[in-house]
Amino acid sequence: MQKDIHPSNYRPCVFKDMSTEDYFIANSCAEARETTEIDGKEYPLVKMEISAASHPFYTGKVKLVDTAGRVDKFRNRYKKHLKK
User: Fold this and answer.
1) Beta bridge partner(s), residue 28
2) In DSSP terms, which residues pair with 14 in a beta bridge?
3) Spatial contact of 53 and 20, defined as CB atoms under 8 Å apart
4) What percent of the chain has pLDDT over 70?
5) pTM given for the model
6) d(Cα 41, Cα 83) in Å, to the nearest integer?
7) Strand, helix or coil for residue 15
8) What CA–CA distance (Å, rounded) separates 48 from 16?
9) For residues 50 and 21, is the Cβ–Cβ distance under 8 A?
10) Which single residue of 23, 26, 29, 46 could bond 16 by disulfide (Cβ 3.0 to 4.6 Å)?
């Protein structure tokens, strides 16, 4: 194996699905601005909008996730094309 090819900040992180409040711990070098405490140990917190706990493919439920109003912007932009 090659030496010194892995990032130096590779550590356990908490990934939290913001729509379902589920979380899991995995090793990662993702940037984290916040920390959280789980079982008395502090971990970097990475917030996600969609994970396996909320994705329609895994849950079998159709759910529209629109955090920044992108769907409404799209519909308003192409509304004139639908009237024809």
Assistant:
1) 11
2) 25, 45
3) yes
4) 83
5) 0.63
6) 57
7) strand
8) 6
9) no
10) 23
Reduce the DSSP state of residue 67 to 3 states and report it. Answer: coil
For the stretch 11-22, pLDDT in tens is 999 999 888 889
Task: pLDDT tens for the chain, 84 residues: list them.
Answer: 788 887 888 899 999 988 888 999 999 999 899 999 999 999 999 998 888 777 767 677 766 666 667 777 777 778 777 665
Distance from C-alpha of 49 to C-alpha of 13, rounded to nearest angstrom: 16
Residue 6 has phi, psi (to 5 degrees) of -90, 150
Largest CA distance in the chain: 63
DSSP 3-65: SS-S-TT-EEEEEEETTT--EEEEEE----SEEEEETTEEEEEEEES--TTT-HHHH------
Q: Which amino acid is at 49?
A: E
Q: What's the Cα-to-Cα distance from 13 to each of 5, 41, 50, rounded to whole Å?
A: 20, 11, 17
